[in-house]
Amino acid sequence: MTTPKKEIKPKKVAVKKAPAKKPKEEEVNSPVVAEKGEASKKLKKLPYLYAVGRRKTSTARVRFYAKDSRTGFLINQKGYQEYFPYFEFQQIVEAPLKKLDLLGKNYITVKVEGGGTRGQAEAVRHGLGRVLLKMDETLRKTLRGEGFLTRDSRKKERKKPGLKRARRAPQWAKR
Question: Is 3.30.230.10 the CATH classification of the domain at 45-146?
Answer without folding.
Answer: yes
